[in-house]
Structure formats: C-alpha cells, structure tokens
Amino acid sequence: MFDAMWGAIKSMKRENLVSLATFASVFSSYVIVDKVKEAIMTFEVMDQYGCPRDVFALNSLLSAICRDGRTFDAVEFLHVAKTRILPDADSYAILLEGWEKEMNAASAKKTFADMVSMVGWDPRNVPAYDTFLNTLLVGHDGLREAMKHFDVMKDRGCLPGVKFFRLALEECLKCNDIRAAMLIWETLVVRVGFRPDIKLYNLMIALHCYDKQTDIANKFFDEMIYNGVFPDSQTYNVLFQYLIKYEKLKEASLVFQ
C-alpha cells in the first residue's frame, strides 16, 4: 500500500510533521519488499518534503539496505552519493557491519581501505575496527589476516572492541597460535586496561595446556584468582585433563586441594 503511504506523508508535510524518522521507515519498507531502487529514489526526493539529504539521512538509507543483506547495493550507492554528501565514520561502520553479516572478508577490505582514504584513522571509531577484524577472522587464513591489520591499527593508535579480542583468542585456540594470543592479551590487558572475564582466562589456560605449557597455564590460574575472577568447572577440567596427561600428578593434587 505504498500509494496510501505517500498520501499519508503528503498530509504530514502540510502539518510540518515529516522528519528523518518518517523516511527511515519508508527506506525500510521498500528494502524489505526488495525495492532498493525505490528506497534510493525516496532519498533523492526527501528534501522536497522539508527533510535534508545530509549524512544522517544517507546513513539511515545505508542502514536499511545493509540490514536486509544488500550491502553490495549500499556500497554502490555510496560511491555515487559521496560526490554530493561527504560520508562519515558511521557510514563506513554500517557498511562493514553489513559485510560482517554476509561474511564477505574480501569486500570488507575494500570498504575499509575506502574508509581510511575518506575519513582517516580515528581512535573513536572502535565499532568499525571491531567489525572489520571480526569479518577477517571468518575469511581465508583469517587469523593471520586479522593480526596483520591489527598490527597496522595499533601503529595508528586505533584499537578494536572487546568482541574482537574474544573471537581472536578463540581462533588462536583453534589454530594453537600462542604468539598471536599473547600479543592480543598484552594489548587487551596491559595497553587497554581491560579486566578479563572467566571466559577469556579459560581460553588462555586451555591454549597453554594444549601447547604443553602447564606452568604458564597455572600462572594464569593464579592471576585470575588474584584479580577476583574465580575459576569454574571448565577451568578445573582443562587443568586436570592436561596435568594428568603430562603426568604432573603433584601439580594436579595441588589444584584439586
């Protein structure tokens, strides 16, 4: 009932009731029924209804398109729109979230490069960095690719959010990559000052146990208690499994006590 919808919008215009929220609803309504072109056409005429076509309106349109799994269409439109409207960090964060949902690491790299070119590096742009690295993790050779870009971010004084650190440590465990795990841990705990939770400690303990470094695993065990994070059944199960496997029964008895 799009004709009726526009009739309502024209009535709203006469009463000066049209706002960005009105058009955000229209964008979503069109995209949901696979009418992306109509959503874009709506964006082009919204200023006729007293609503400016600024970066906030642009981001609202991009969000509606990406939310429905049409990130390619959003990127294509941004290439056209940015000659008239300068995109901001949020514009690219929206696109990167779209690529993360679609698990498209190759396209995420292109969008990230475009973002750096257009808006530069900004330590406040945590959501975009977090989303980008998370997308790389699911791509080909994901951990290596993510760590490569993570090093570049650190050099620029920019860091991702906690979600990436958690997912990256899980990937380190799968790949048995202690070097990358320790780099991530040092950045998270020492540089960012984040207080790890039980899940993060368990990941580090398991990683070192798998690599036969039970002494270091025990150090993490002691550290977590010192920092007020108390072990759960998973912590003990992993420690017992590998201390017994490596015939370190004395150490296992101490943990049991």
UniProtKB/TrEMBL annotation:
Please report the name of this protein according to its UniProt entry. Pentatricopeptide repeat-containing protein
Q: Key word DNA-binding present in the record?
A: no
InterPro entries assigned: Mito_RNA-Proc/Resp, PPR_rpt, TPR-like_helical_dom_sf
In which ranges do the PPR repeats occur? 125-160, 197-231
What domain of life does the UniProt record list for this protein's source? Eukaryota
Family label: Belongs to the PPR family. P subfamily.
The terms under GO molecular function for this entry are:
mRNA binding
Q: Please give the Gene3D superfamilies that the UniProt record associates with this protein.
A: Tetratricopeptide repeat domain (1.25.40.10)
Q: Which UniProt keywords apply?
A: Repeat
* Species whose genome carries this gene: Salix koriyanagi
